[in-house]
Amino acid sequence: MSASPQTQAWSGRFAFLMATVGSAVGLGSIWKFPYMVGANGGSAFLFAYLAGLVVLILPLMIGEFVIGRRGGGSAVGSIAKVASESGATRAWSAVGAWGVLTGFLILSFYSVIGGWTIAYVPRALADAFSGQSPEAIGAQFGGMLADPVGLAFHHAVFMALTAVVVARGINDGIERAVTFLMPLMFLILAGLVGYAFGTADVQAAAKFFFTPDWSKLTPEVALSAIGLGFFSIGTGIGAMITYAAYAPREIRLGQAAVLTIAADTFASFLAAFAIFPLVFAYGLNPGEGAGLMFTTLPIAFGQMPAGAFVGAAFFFLLVISALASAISLLELVVSWATERFGVSRPAAAYSSAFVCWVIGIGTVLSFNNWSKWFPLGFVPVFENKTFFDVVDYLTSNIMLPLGGIFLGLFVGWVMSREAVLAELGIKNGPAWQLLRFLLGIVVPVVIFILFVANLGFMKLATDG
Asked: Which class does domain 13-358+388-463 fall in?
């Protein structure tokens, strides 16, 4: 199987950047980043996080861009074509297939969480948090999770929005969506930061964020920080390969990778400074965990001036960030399906979205009717894990790391030097030697350490 030539392309550099930024800036950047920083001691955690971005994420993203534009097809087809061109076996395309499966499974539960953000926009607009006790706000979130029909409905709405955009194609669908959504997202983020600076405790937030507590930087926390950077941006599954296949020749891939990671990091910092001043101003816990978005912040929204508007803007921001990433995950699948089976883009988009929605029902039920069902309970590591927990663990801790390892090895050792140099527009010199060293040695070794350590920490937690 070879990569079929792309009939569509991004209209220019801005469209490509907005697409890659949208893929990177998902819920991991807006939602998970702040609470991970809060739970792990502030800027000491940030140091490890930023180190991971530079040493791991950036070279791996460059590698994916190079494969995609060189191959000109889906993640599967592009790797097969590049491997063949480099005199290697086309069996390397299995790495792309692994990525497509990983992205598909991630989308199945990502869409459910995206549905939560949709559900909370009208709730915030209706001022449902005003005057409510922390217990009452927690009960609102618990009530939403306990309703499988409501969760399935919002999951369907989110998946339908994603499918409609992808079905319309690169220029009329994805490009139009991301070039509108990404600037809007940054505008809302800037507005929320401005509001926080004007009304909340910025000094406490800055002190927390920038004063390092090195005692908190344990090996486990450092691994969590590096893992957050790697997994939140989503390198290693082939989404960036797919987007780069539509990139015109005039786009400088190395520069695009740097700008994408810089924009994602900027969005994460903006999100933190929209959230932490409110958290400190209202005496809340910055290390609350995953509930920070849906139980902790609504307490602040219920007490602040114009809280209904600010809360609705915040949850709409989450919808935008989730949707932009979901689009890239579905495109990863659709690009492969149209290439492999010759079906039309709308047919591939809607059928893939439907199957993904069905699988996502397992995640929906994990919060209510199946909350006591542990499908792999006979395996020690999974004995207390619901359907959602199993899929999340397998994709985050096993499938993504393995995909990243093999993509690094492929670009570092299998893909021809001439092809890499041609795509990056550089000469054989220190820049290429550094990139090859990072991709061929550092990325696989560090990700393997993360992989083994995560499994070890999970086993220790289970044994304890």
From this structure: mainly alpha
